[in-house]
Amino acid sequence: MAVISGAARGQGRSHARMLAAEGADIIALDLCEDIETNEYPLARPEDLEETTRLVEKEGQRVFSAIVDVRDRAALSSALDDGVAEFGRLDVVIANAGICPLTAGLPPQAFADAVDVDLVGVLNLVHSSLKHLEAGASVIVIGSNAAFMSSMNTTGIDGGPGGAGYAFAKIAASHYVNDFARALAPFSIRMNAIHPTNVNTDMLHSAPMYRAFRPDLPNPTRADAEPIFPLVQAMPVPYVEPEDISEAVLFLASDAARYVTGQQLRVDAGGFLKVKPWSGS
């Protein structure tokens, strides 16, 4: 049985569907409302309902709840309810994230990005600990931004929200590295997956188009999409949510029973374009 934050659409929905297809029951959690500094629309309740339908279509049970990962008490309560219904918890996928990537936003954008993308990860993982036993797998969905010194390394001016996003992903990757060591003696595994551009609503949004095409006042998808491949070494504009879900499925499975503390990049070689080889 798996819990997934940010499960209403995008990567989270893909993770839920693919794990359900392999026989997992799902606790699907999502905020299902907008955050003011995040200028693109977030998921809605009907999106979470669609995730529920897709899990059930695979013949699995689903417990869904509208809950904010920034609220530890509410998140823990929803998780406890789901575990009580299904009886156990085997996989934790901290997937919820925002990217308030617009220059000129107030400092609150930095705080919101950190609260969702870092504090939200800690809240879900820490709320799950009491339910986890030997063999459990914890997976944090990060970003290739975790390997940049800041968002500016990419050439994108993301303003305070972009800076908060990059900081959160860097800190979350460090957290996975250190916490995996603490969990290992209990045979609980913890790993991070770091995508490049993913074909989701976060990528296909006005703030992201402006970030990739700052030379245009109101760029469209058609304007921005030819620039997307510059982030990857392979000649693709983005990867699909299912490409990330395949990595989730591996790390959740017994095939990865000795894999822990890893920073797995599913980035079409994006890391290779910005980081020189180091043997250390």
Automatic annotation (TrEMBL):
SUPFAM superfamilies: NAD(P)-binding Rossmann-fold domains. It comes from the Bacteria. One of its GO terms (molecular function) is oxidoreductase activity. Gene3D superfamilies: NAD(P)-binding Rossmann-like Domain. InterPro entries: NAD(P)-bd_dom_sf (IPR036291), SDR_fam (IPR002347), SDR_subfam_1 (IPR023985). Keywords: NAD, Oxidoreductase. The keyword Repeat does not apply. The keyword rRNA-binding does not apply. Belongs to the short-chain dehydrogenases/reductases (SDR) family. This is 3-ketoacyl-ACP reductase. The lineage of its organism: Bacteria, Bacillati, Actinomycetota, Actinomycetes, Mycobacteriales.
